[in-house]
């Protein structure tokens, strides 16, 4: 048995983000989509430093070895390795950006800087700056203050060095300009020659430095971008007289004063300017100093304008209806007869909204209970729940206010719903509520009948267009009574419930999945058909990894599709030789959790909100739901098989090279496109039968 049985979580995450960067580099991906993948890469990296890097840094500063937490790594050594990897990948991302922008010229799209502005463009840009940009600028004269005000987390700033004569000698004046986020980063310049021109807001400000500083007599001026990333951990301790929401709001605001964990700067910045900033901001060498290019906050490339260039974008897919479930009719009537599965974005998310809207209007519906983790900024889900409360329904919402980086949005909706008479539950002390469930009570023939849905993803109209997720609509009374018990647990959480159908974290997930794996081990040893197929976002819990290793050693064939973090090391003789593992990163973000156990030719199939991470298993409320409908069970198995066959966007975890694409056999098979075709064929076959 090898000594190092597990991959490091932080390094595994960085490999996942490198897969995102691979999409930006892939010439088969449309050019503007490649820019957007660069934006995703940058946004992911920001969040990584705010959360994971900050956690490792706290371990290091506390003087703990942290080896158990960090998978055998010393915290200080891990920080250095992370920094080295990030510097390398940042440089690679800059090369990719330059390459894409050069290729855009072949399509008459030009991203120009302040030195390329023509006389025809100058008038528009000066006017645009004076009318829209100048009033929004915050400019900090650093020489005139003792201490730099707290720079906002992940905001971009231009560090300006102005050289001027004072008392017959040259002196340097240093200034920070905050790049306003209220204005679009990409300014589209009106075209006069049929070509399309864009200038970044940063360069527009550089172009107008003479306007900003016209009261100064200077000999030279330069501006280079810098950005600081702060520890995003929330502090909810303290004043007992304050409400939970008050504490959370204060803690979210306090993020702007969190300890710095990364300082990114333009590698062309003058050394004296960099030294001045670091000293003034009291940033020492223990922080992660990352030299970068001219532009930071490349997450903004997620919103790069399409400029009407449809040929430089993925073809939009029209979300399909669920076969046999007409959205125009009564969903509850249909669901009362059989279960239905929704797989977004291949199928429309509108069914989720319609379910709640119908429940809000139906006089027979008496109550609605739902868990909410991340809402869209404009949420039809929230509107439907408020509508239901106004119609006299008892509406209960368990809303997770600590959904990281969505706290403010969730607080906004929580306060709005509470004003409208919705009963709010703020989770369970010490546990995040991450499950995705809804249950309604409907009075039928003087008896209460339950309807509901369970999902692998958030009830969010925006992410449902880019995240792949399963949602089960059901009237199975046993499953729904178990969901009712979950809501009871939210309110009386010192009582541990017993569930007949659901697998619920934090009490049962580890033991139940261990039992399911043990059954496959037993079947394999008895010569019966066995096997495990799992699709999830992340796999980092050592206990569950050890259980899979045990199954592998017993001869159980295991297939893993893990999009992100994967600390399991597959295909190692004597440890994991029967485990194959891939990751698929493509147009959509793979987000479902799907668990399939062969069970002697009678598969047990589950969808879940839970990854196999320690936090999901032991420190969150999660729901794993069994699939009883044979047609849906088969559909889930078939969609897993489609994803497993991918030989275009699948990376092989067993490869000695990081993120090596799976060895291609036969024709190209791109699973996300094939999944859409699968559902189109399902609709055709139903139409043909009719």
From TrEMBL:
Keyword Magnesium in record: yes
Q: Does the keyword Transmembrane apply?
A: no
Per the record, what are the reactions this protein catalyses?
A: [phosphate](n) + ATP = [phosphate](n+1) + ADP
Q: Which keywords does UniProt give here?
A: ATP-binding, Kinase, Magnesium, Metal-binding, Nucleotide-binding, Phosphoprotein, Transferase
Q: Where does Mg(2+) bind?
A: 374, 404
One Pfam family, please name it. PP_kinase_C_1
The entry's comment on post-translational modification says:
An intermediate of this reaction is the autophosphorylated ppk in which a phosphate is covalently linked to a histidine residue through a N-P bond.
Per UniProt, ATP binds at: 44, 467, 563, 591
Ranges of residues in domain PLD phosphodiesterase:
586-616
The record's InterPro entries line, in alphabetical order, gives: PLipase_D/transphosphatidylase, PP_kinase, PP_kinase_C_1, PP_kinase_middle, PP_kinase_middle_dom_sf, PPK_C_dom2, PPK_N_dom, PPK_N_dom_sf
Give the positions the UniProt entry annotates as the active site: 434
Query: Per the similarity annotation, which family is this?
Result: Belongs to the polyphosphate kinase 1 (PPK1) family.
> Could you tell me what this protein does?
Catalyzes the reversible transfer of the terminal phosphate of ATP to form a long-chain polyphosphate (polyP).
Q: What is the protein name stated in its UniProt record?
A: Polyphosphate kinase
Species of the source: Psychroflexus longus
Gene symbol of the encoding locus: ppk1
């Amino acid at each position: 048995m090898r000594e190092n049985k597990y991959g490091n979580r932080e390094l595994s995450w960085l490999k996942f983000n490198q897969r995102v960067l691979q999409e930006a580099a892939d010439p088969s991906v449309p050019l503007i989509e490649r820019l957007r993948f660069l934006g995703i890469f940058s946004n992911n990296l920001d969040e990584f430093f705010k959360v994971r890097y900050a956690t490792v840094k706290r371990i290091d500063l506390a003087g703990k070895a942290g080896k158990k937490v960090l998978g055998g790594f010393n915290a200080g050594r891990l920080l250095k390795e992370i920094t080295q990897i990030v510097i390398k990948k940042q440089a690679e991302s800059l090369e990719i950006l330059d390459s894409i922008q050069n290729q855009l010229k072949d399509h008459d799209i030009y991203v120009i800087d302040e030195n390329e502005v023509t006389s025809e463009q100058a008038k528009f840009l000066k006017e645009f700056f004076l009318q829209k940009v100048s009033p929004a600028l915050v400019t900090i004269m650093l020489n005139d203050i003792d201490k730099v005000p707290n720079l906002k987390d992940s905001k971009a700033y231009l560090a300006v060095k102005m050289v001027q004569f004072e008392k017959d000698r040259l002196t340097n004046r240093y200034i920070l300009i905050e790049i306003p986020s209220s204005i679009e980063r990409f300014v589209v310049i009106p075209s006069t020659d049929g070509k399309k021109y864009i200038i970044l807001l940063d360069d527009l400000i550089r172009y107008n430095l003479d306007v900003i500083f016209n009261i100064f007599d200077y000999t030279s001026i330069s501006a280079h971008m810098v950005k600081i990333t702060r520890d995003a951990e929330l502090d909810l301790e303290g004043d007992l007289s304050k409400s939970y929401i008050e504490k959370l709001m204060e803690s979210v605001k306090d993020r702007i004063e969190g300890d710095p964990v990364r300082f990114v700067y333009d590698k062309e910045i003058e050394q004296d300017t960099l030294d001045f900033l670091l000293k003034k901001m009291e940033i020492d060498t223990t922080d992660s100093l990352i030299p970068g290019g001219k532009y930071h906050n490349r997450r903004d490339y997620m919103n790069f304008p399409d400029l009407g260039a449809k040929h430089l974008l993925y073809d939009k897919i029209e979300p399909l209806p669920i076969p046999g479930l007409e959205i125009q009719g009564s969903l509850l009537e249909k669901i009362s007869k059989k279960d239905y599965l929704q797989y977004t974005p291949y199928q429309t998310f509108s069914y989720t909204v319609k379910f709640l809207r119908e429940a809000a209007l139906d006089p027979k519906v008496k109550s609605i209970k739902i868990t909410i983790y991340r809402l869209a900024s404009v949420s039809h889900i929230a509107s439907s729940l408020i509508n239901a409360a106004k119609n006299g329904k008892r509406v209960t919402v368990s809303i997770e206010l600590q959904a990281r980086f969505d706290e403010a949005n969730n607080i906004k909706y929580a306060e709005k719903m509470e004003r409208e008479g919705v009963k709010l539950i703020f989770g369970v002390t010490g546990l995040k509520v991450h499950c995705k469930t809804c249950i309604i009570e409907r009075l039928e023939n003087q008896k209460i009948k339950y309807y509901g849905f369970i999902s692998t993803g958030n009830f969010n109209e925006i992410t449902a267009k880019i995240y792949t997720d399963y949602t089960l609509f059901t009237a199975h009374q046993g499953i729904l009574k178990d969901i009712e018990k979950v809501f009871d647990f939210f309110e009386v959480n010192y009582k541990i419930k017993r569930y007949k159908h659901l697998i619920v974290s934090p009490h049962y997930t580890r033991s139940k999945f261990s039992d399911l794996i043990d059954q496959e081990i037993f079947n394999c040893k008895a010569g019966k058909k066995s096997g495990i197929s799992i699709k999830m976002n992340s796999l980092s819990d050592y206990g569950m990894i050890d259980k899979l290793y045990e199954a592998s050693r017993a001869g159980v064939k295991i297939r893993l599709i893990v999009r992100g973090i994967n600390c399991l090391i597959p295909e190692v003789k004597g440890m994991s030789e029967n485990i194959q593992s891939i990751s698929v990163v493509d147009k959509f973000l793979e987000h479902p959790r799907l668990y399939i156990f062969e069970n002697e030719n009678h598969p047990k199939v589950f969808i879940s909100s839970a990854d196999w991470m320690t936090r999901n298993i032991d420190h969150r409320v999660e729901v794993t739901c069994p699939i009883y409908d044979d047609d849906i069970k088969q559909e889930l198995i078939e969609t897993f098989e489609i994803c497993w066959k991918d030989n275009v966007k699948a990376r092989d975890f067993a490869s000695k090279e990081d993120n090596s694409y799976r060895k291609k056999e036969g024709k190209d098979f791109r699973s996300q496109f094939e999944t859409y075709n699968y559902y189109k064929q399902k609709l055709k076959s139903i139409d043909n039968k009719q």
